[in-house]
Amino acid sequence: MTDKKSSLSDVRERIDSIDQQIQQLISERAGWAQEVARVKGEGLSAIDYYRPEREAHVLRMVVDRNNGPLTDVEMVRLFREIMSSCLAQEDPLKVGFLGPEGTFSEQAVRKHFGHAAYGLPLGSIEEVFQEVAAGHADFGVVPVENSGQGMIQVTLDMFLTSKATICGEVELRVHQCLHSLNGKLEGIKRVYAHAQSLQQCKTWLRINLPGVECVAVSSNAEAARLARHADDVAAIAGETAGRVYGLKTVANGIEDRADNTTRFLVIGRSLFPASGNDRTSLLITVNDKPGALYHVLKPFAEHGISLNRIESRPAHSGKWQYAFFIDVSGHINDGPLQAAMKEMGDAAAQVRVLGSYPVALP
Ligand SMILES: O=C(O)C(=O)C[C@]1(C(=O)O)C=C[C@@H](O)C=C1
């Protein structure tokens, strides 16, 4: 017993000494980050100091160096928070997201920008684009795709009219829970959730709550907010939203697919340099000619550029006209991508580079 106690205090002494070193090094790092800011120019706002390509590079080195026991996800999270605090020494970044507090979009904001950024909960995805365009938010984080449900059309359509650029992507594993006031499955007559979440949990709902009324609302956090008012209603939302709105968890992990993941885009007003492992998003409209799309895509294949994604949406330019959202590997300033864009020539009626940004980190 005495031995165990003394060995525990020995171990704690080691931990205390390591913490002291970590703290000292974090302070030293923060000092150097201030120095970087001085080099960039004093008195600028947070957005002028923010360098997503540098952050991605730093975090990739963290992953490369990681030998455990902490996972890459944990290590990246810790270093992201350190960088977030270093950057916020100047003035925190303002990041708009689909609110209210507790949404998966807010989790994506925290995963990408850390907790030192200032989160701005907004009423809709459209509002996130508007607030970024108006300069009220430095960046916005919007969902664009779910691994099981596909593309989020409202987000894609916003790029048809907005001038927003894409500055980053975030992948978030989405674990859905059923929450209610009393935490009981019996007696639930109505379930509130975002339409996407109802889709993600369709099988679970059919088996466990057959015939129950499902009501789609603007966000999962809004669903949780509504479920606070009565015992016979429940909400599908993340763990955080359930906690924020004082609900009890009836069941967790109720998503039909175990790998349920949502991809978010970071939107902003400018383009950033290459990070070394980037993706480029293009918005292309083609002329109504035989083989037009083929001629748009051929140069990518010829220059060995991977096509990650292609999605078509009705264009606003006229009936039966389509806009193609195309994601390719690489940065817009890379030689092969420049050459492919040039060769695409007249095959495309319009080409807009939505952004080149670092591929999502763990
Ligand atoms: O290297 C820079 O440009 C910095 O400003 C430093 C730093 C960091 O803490 O590492 C901070 C903020 C930037 O977004 C990128 C990196």
UniProtKB/TrEMBL annotation:
Q: Where does the record place the Prephenate dehydratase domain?
A: 94-269
What role does it play?
Catalyzes the Claisen rearrangement of chorismate to prephenate and the decarboxylation/dehydration of prephenate to phenylpyruvate.
Per the record, where is site Essential for prephenate dehydratase activity? T262
The GO biological-process annotations, alphabetized, read as: chorismate metabolic process; L-phenylalanine biosynthetic process
Q: Which Pfam families match?
A: ACT (PF01842), CM_2 (PF01817), PDT (PF00800)
UniProt domain ACT: residue ranges? 281-358
Q: Which Gene3D superfamilies match?
A: 3.30.70.260, Chorismate mutase, Periplasmic binding protein-like II
What pathway is this protein said to act in by its record? Metabolic intermediate biosynthesis; prephenate biosynthesis; prephenate from chorismate: step 1/1; Amino-acid biosynthesis; L-phenylalanine biosynthesis; phenylpyruvate from prephenate: step 1/1
Q: What is this protein called?
A: Bifunctional chorismate mutase/prephenate dehydratase
